[in-house]
Amino acid sequence: MLSQVYRCGFQPFNQHLLPWVQCTTVSRSHCIQPSVIRHVRSWSNIPFITVPLSRTHGKSFAHRGELKHAKRIVVKLGSAVVTRGDECGLALGRLASIVEQVSVLQNQGREMMLVTSGAVAFGKQRLRHEILLSQSVRQALHSGQNQLKEMAIPVLEARACAAAGQSGLMALYEAMFTQYSICAAQILVTNLDFHDEQKRRNLNGTLHELLRMNIVPIVNTNDAVVPPAEPNSDLQGVNVISVKDNDSLAARLAVEMKTDLLIVLSDVEGLFDSPPGSDDAKLIDIFYPGDQQSVTFGTKSRVGMGGMEAKVKAALWALQGGTSVVIANGTHPKVSGHVITDIVEGKKVGTFFSEVKPAGPTVEQQGEMARSGGRMLATLEPEQRAEIIHHLADLLTDQRDEILLANKKDLEEAEGRLAAPLLKRLSLSTSKLNSLAIGLRQIAASSQDSVGRVLRRTRIAKNLELEQVTVPIGVLLVIFESRPDCLPQVAALAIASGNGLLLKGGKEAAHSNRILHLLTQEALSIHGVKEAVQLVNTREEVEDLCRLDKMIDLIIPRGSSQLVRDIQKAAKGIPVMGHSEGICHMYVDSEASVDKVTRLVRDSKCEYPAACNALETLLIHRDLLRTPLFDQIIDMLRVEQVKIHAGPKFASYLTFSPSEVKSLRTEYGDLELCIEVVDNVQDAIDHIHKYGSSHTDVIVTENEDTAEFFLQHVDSACVFWNASTRFADGYRFGLARLPQR
């Protein structure tokens, strides 16, 4: 049972250890001698947890995506993060949010350490209050109330403020961490504690013991006794860094404790290539050693001892010591509530320090290249754009063997990892490539007036005309899953319309996408616009790409409905052209032709079940049950090895029915089909509107009036009479092939 908070201070084994360690727990305890603590496996009411988050220290993470494997993490809270805007008192809401995030990570089994500022600000608040109270009493006694407004607060010495604020700051942290059943311990250090070998070993041992007991160490420079700042020369070396501020303290602590990640929170988003706030300032996503010459450092923050230059130098020192570093904004109200957890999850937040430069351009650079190349592409003559597409179509057939070899590698690597429908989408064949080439040539033929076509011309006044003209959208981001044939299709459409293009394919199709992109750029090269189409090969998360609102004008997701929903949720200020699921229906009317039904059902379901226009639900008029037509349909599906799921009404007619469907709103994407019984055409329409996705729906009947009623009342993109659902295809419509899922 939880009780009041007890506080125990103890001197470590060696009397030379200067840092005072203050430890708090939410369970009833007494002061424990160090020798006893050595055997304790649980310090708070949370058991000691061992989580498989281990790695060999010595080399920093190369990519953001690897940060999720960080086991030991130091979070440095700058003065601007901890203090209020008036520099007198703490930003309690922000601090509570940070404590919550640290607690979440700690409870995941990570080892969290805090390096925090704030003692001076907290002490300043307390001392000001005491001075005002004291002055008000004296002046009230001697001068009357009218002179209270003229009271002046003397300049407060920082060391005195720190001495007054350290206990209050720690008490605040204790109260906050207690809400998450986490124990915290305060450690105050000075530069001597790192440079004296005996003290350094003792400090190291104390920190390791606290981490072992699932306690969060809260470390700060002992500002009450800290000596004046030393020269900056030590930062030029690789072995020594003086503790002059909390930036250098965090870096020294991170290397000393062999931490995996150091998160430095400040009041700016990270590093910029020019002064933040200027028109052309761009956030530097990844910073490499040696890049500091290209960065202009501004002034330090409104509070605190260090500026951004000090942070960068400390970060590079920690990076060289094997600790990954991220500098990010801890004050922005929209992100501060999840900035720490976002960084650990590998999201693109702040500036990530890395020793490994990628072989190719960054995604930001690719976005700039796509925009520049797209603008050049838009200036080409229509015949030149068509020539590029024709050349790409020729390359698909000429380089068929190389493409299929790359695709074979993808299929081999995906075997056992992907479901059968996804494997079918991933697979390329000679017939698919031939079909692709035909579709691309059709796009080329129909693209002559895609750009620059006058849609409307209005005479506003004499000698003044207004024209509405088709123009490119700009830069498109197309994200697609398991469909390498989508790449040349989308590229051809972008080329025809003069748009720059960023492509992000699934990693399962990496080999296929790579060669198809190379062929696309080879085709673009004939008119000098090679960079208009870019393939994102870096470890960019889709969510990070969706934040590039200054580079991308439209996002088009091509994949599952879940992918579309995720992208719509993640997109920040960028329009998303999404789509729904392909839950296609076929209604077999009581007056359907026996000869047509089985052929249409077979083509709709079995020809390519992974496509978005494949049949998913077959609606049967109740009068057809137990008729030869119904038996023929079932026999055909059995021969084609289609798994049947019975709808509720269909199951009620059967003594021994197939497995009852779990949901009538299911896109199987495989040789599976739901069969349901309806009473009439209106019942079929109601079912389609309730469970369909407005993609493609079909009626099979010889009654023209029934067919016309169905065509007029079904609200879907494609509504057919006596045709396969697979007919819903741009190529078959003569509109040039559009990508199918």
Automatic annotation (TrEMBL):
Pathway: Amino-acid biosynthesis; L-proline biosynthesis; L-glutamate 5-semialdehyde from L-glutamate: step 1/2; Amino-acid biosynthesis; L-proline biosynthesis; L-glutamate 5-semialdehyde from L-glutamate: step 2/2. One of its GO terms (cellular component) is mitochondrial matrix. Its main location: mitochondrion. PROSITE patterns: GLUTAMATE_5_KINASE, PROA. It catalyses: L-glutamate 5-semialdehyde + phosphate + NADP(+) = L-glutamyl 5-phosphate + NADPH + H(+); L-glutamate + ATP = L-glutamyl 5-phosphate + ADP. Its EC number is 2.7.2.11, 1.2.1.41. InterPro entries: AceGlu_kinase-like_sf, Ald_DH/histidinol_DH, Ald_DH_C, Ald_DH_N, Aldehyde_DH_dom, Asp/Glu/Uridylate_kinase, G-glutamylP_reductase_CS, G5K_ProBA. Keywords: Amino-acid biosynthesis, ATP-binding, Kinase, Mitochondrion, Multifunctional enzyme, NADP, Nucleotide-binding, Oxidoreductase, Proline biosynthesis, Transferase. Residues 71-329 form the Aspartate/glutamate/uridylate kinase domain. One of its GO terms (biological process) is L-proline biosynthetic process. Residues 363-625 form the Aldehyde dehydrogenase domain. It is found in: Mitochondrion matrix. It holds the Pfam family AA_kinase. GO terms for molecular function: ATP binding; glutamate 5-kinase activity; glutamate-5-semialdehyde dehydrogenase activity. HAMAP family: ProA, ProB. PANTHER family: DELTA-1-PYRROLINE-5-CARBOXYLATE SYNTHASE, GLUTAMATE SEMIALDEHYDE DEHYDROGENASE. Bifunctional enzyme that converts glutamate to glutamate 5-semialdehyde, an intermediate in the biosynthesis of proline, ornithine and arginine. Can form homodimers/multimers. In the N-terminal section; belongs to the glutamate 5-kinase family. In the C-terminal section; belongs to the gamma-glutamyl phosphate reductase family. This is Delta-1-pyrroline-5-carboxylate synthase. The gene is ALDH18A1.
